[in-house]
């Protein structure tokens, strides 16, 4: 990521595990998590959120389970290999992010689009 | 920050998923009617078979109408997977009883979606749904009328043959003067 892009990023949400920021110029979202930095379009991040929420956490704790989940997104180049703590961390991060997106949408509605 | 949620789509996640469920229900209806057409065809009720072939086509159109709406509004339309369609019916009458039951379920389902739209003030989708409410008026009328024929004509003797012939004439005129 070049300097200019970095300057223009707006942080959407962050936790101890990672962060998600938005580039107002390109509308791309940058996810920094577990040592990785990945850039997504909005619908792709939505899909990631859906996939993460569908992970069967109880099954991951089974003795027969490797304890790792491979998160692969159609249309995205990267994949994540995550353990249960990381899944929980990412879930938290995405939940916060989408709450911020929705809050932002509601605020925009109230302040700019007179109801 | 830009309003990414709203820029992406007019539909909320909840409404989008309700509409996708409805797409599946319409596809299910279409398959059901096709199975009914098959049963009627096999059992010699030619007019009823034709009636259900036509109904099946209509349901497919309903499915596609919803499908395009979801996509046009920025959502993701999901192509449904339909299985477990009944093949056999106990009687000619049972076919029509199932058809009415199916239409009632569809009407109820649309009412639930409309209630959700009201709740989140999605008047755009609500207006879109009006077309379907009008359609359900016709669908329920036709299904009820078909069953009425069983009572009016009676199934004894050549009754079922007579009923079949009258099924072809069922028409909903929306209360217009004849
Ligand atoms: Fe329908
Ligand atoms: Fe119908």
Automatic annotation (TrEMBL), chain B:
Highest taxon listed in the record's lineage: Bacteria
Matches recorded under InterPro entries: Ferritin, Ferritin-like, Ferritin-like_diiron, Ferritin-like_SF, Ferritin_DPS_dom, Ferritin_prok
Q: Which GO terms describe its molecular function?
A: ferric iron binding; ferrous iron binding; identical protein binding; oxidoreductase activity
Reactions catalysed: 4 Fe(2+) + O2 + 6 H2O = 4 iron(III) oxide-hydroxide + 12 H(+)
**Residues of the Ferritin-like diiron domain:** 9-154
Documented EC number(s): 1.16.3.2
> Which keywords annotate this record?
Cytoplasm, Iron, Iron storage, Metal-binding, Oxidoreductase
The compartments listed are: Cytoplasm
Q: Can you quote a single GO CC term?
A: cytoplasm
Q: Quick one: a GO biological-process term for this protein?
A: intracellular iron ion homeostasis
Which residues are involved in binding Fe cation? 26, 59, 62, 103, 136
- UniProt record similarity statement: Belongs to the ferritin family. Prokaryotic subfamily.
Protein purpose = May alleviate iron toxicity in the presence of oxygen.
Q: What protein does this entry describe?
A: Ferritin
Q: Which organism encodes this protein? A: Pedobacter puniceum
Q: What is the lineage of its organism?
A: Bacteria, Pseudomonadati, Bacteroidota, Sphingobacteriia, Sphingobacteriales
């Amino acid at each position: 990521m070049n300097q200019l892009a970095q300057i223009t990023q707006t942080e959407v949400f962050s936790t101890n595990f990672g962060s998600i920021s938005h580039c107002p110029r390109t509308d791309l979202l940058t996810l920094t998590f577990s040592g990785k930095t990945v850039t997504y379009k909005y619908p792709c991040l939505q899909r990631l959120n859906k996939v993460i929420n569908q992970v069967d956490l109880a099954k991951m704790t089974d003795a027969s389970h490797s304890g790792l989940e491979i998160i692969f997104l159609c249309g995205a180049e990267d994949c994540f290999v995550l353990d249960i703590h990381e899944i929980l961390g990412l879930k938290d991060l995405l939940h916060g992010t989408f709450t911020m997106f929705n809050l932002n949408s509601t605020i925009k509605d109230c302040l700019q689009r007179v109801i | 920050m830009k309003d990414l949620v709203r820029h992406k789509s007019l539909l909320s996640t909840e409404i989008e998923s309700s509409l996708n469920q409805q797409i599946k229900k319409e596809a299910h209806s279409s398959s059901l009617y096709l199975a009914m057409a098959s049963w009627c065809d096999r059992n010699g009720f030619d007019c009823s078979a034709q009636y259900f072939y036509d109904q099946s086509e209509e349901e497919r159109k309903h499915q596609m109408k919803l499908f395009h709406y979801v996509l046009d509004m920025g959502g993701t339309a999901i192509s449904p997977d339909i299985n477990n369609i009944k093949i056999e019916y106990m009687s000619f009458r049972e076919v029509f009883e199932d058809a009415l039951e199916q239409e009632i379920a569809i009407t109820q389902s649309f009412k639930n979606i409309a209630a959700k739209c009201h709740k989140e003030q999605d008047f755009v989708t609500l207006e879109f749904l009006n077309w379907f409410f009008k359609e359900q008026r016709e669908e329920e009328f036709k299904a009820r009328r078909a069953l009425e024929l069983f009572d009016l004509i009676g199934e004894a003797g050549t009754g079922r043959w007579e009923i079949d012939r009258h099924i072809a004439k069922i028409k909903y005129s929306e209360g217009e003067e004849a």
